[in-house]
Amino acid sequence: MDQPLSSPPDVTWITAFIDVPASRYDDSRSFWAAVTGSTLSPVRGSTGEFATFVPPDGDAYLRLQRVERGPAGIHLDLHAAEHSFTIRTSPGGLPWCEVSDAEGESTRPLPRIWAGGQASLVDQVCLDIPAAAYEDECAFWAELTGWHLVASSRPEFSYLVRPEHLPLRILLQRLDDADGPVRAHLDLATTDRAAETDRHRDLGARVEATRQRWTVLRDPSGATYCITDRDPYTGLL
Questions:
Q1: Cβ atoms of residues 219 and 31 within 8 Å
Q2: Rounded distance, CA 223 to CA 186, Å?
Q3: Overall average pLDDT of the 130-150 stretch
Q4: DSSP letter (8 states) at residue 229
Q5: Whether the Cβ atoms of residue 180 and residue 132 lie closer than 8 Å to each other
Q6: How large is the average pLDDT for residues 171-194?
């Protein structure tokens, strides 16, 4: 249940949860482990619904959650000192969680280099925001994180400048839809989008669209995500 913020959290780490329907859980688990080159932790939770993708270096920032109802999606956990676990929602209805930072200082993993020679990394969560909610969502996430909000060269995008040691940037995309719920998807940065797209196809992804600077795909659970031309080391084009 959502509760009012007494004060913005001092974000010490950020985690993205891949929320997957039970019927697609096994396929999604195998797919994202292969995409990221991670190993999967033992499951946890009262029904074994949670697992963590453990990277070969650095600290974990991607997790998997089996959901009993609703479509596949993404939600964020913001880690902060001296905060207990609380489920909240953004003004446009996107769930996120405030969790305590029990692990102390963490290290951002490095990009993986694949057999095709390209490097890639899941390094961004894109918030897909209906036009009517866009300004409120931009203001909310900038105030919540304390990160600087930057307008992109494309008018439908803004992004938050993450501290260098944190693993995920937040991109805010204004949709053509006038209203509706705010959703989110993962973005990868890569040094060779064509080679990385082929790798994902081989792992079971389906290409939905190819744009000037990114490719839209669907994972085995049916969730949309993107591979972009951004530098996986800097996050910039």
A1: yes
A2: 9
A3: 97
A4: S
A5: no
A6: 96
Select the more confidently predicted residue: 81 or 22: 22
**In which band, very low, low, confident or very high, does the pLDDT at 100 lie, cut at 50, 70 and 90?**
confident
Which residue has tokens 């909310």? Answer: 140
Give residue-wise pLDDT tens across range 220-229.
989 999 999 9
User: Do 158 and 138 meet the contact criterion of CB atoms below 8 Å apart?
Assistant: yes
What average pLDDT does range 157-173 have in this prediction? Answer: 96
The answer to whether residue 1 scores a pLDDT higher than 50 is no
From the CB of residue 231, how many other CB atoms can be counted at a distance below 10 Å? 16
DSSP structure string for 119-155: EEEEEEEEEEE-GGGHHHHHHHHHHHH-PEEEE-SST
| CA dist 167 → 8, 13, 122, 188 (Å) | 20, 8, 9, 12
Spatial distance between the Cα atoms of 232 and 174, rounded to a whole number of angstroms: 24
- Parallel/antiparallel/unpaired status of strands 214-218 and 224-228: antiparallel
pLDDT of residue 4: 46
What domains, with CATH codes, occur in the chain?
A: 11-100 (3.10.180.10), 112-228 (3.10.180.10)
Residue 103 structure tokens: 């692990």
% of residues, the chain, pLDDT over 90: 84
Instruction: Check whether 114 has a pLDDT greater than 80.
Output: yes
Tell me how far CA of residue 50 lies from CA of 25, 43, 119, 207, in angstroms: 11, 6, 28, 28
Phi-psi sector, 58: left (phi>0), alpha (psi -120 to 50), beta: left
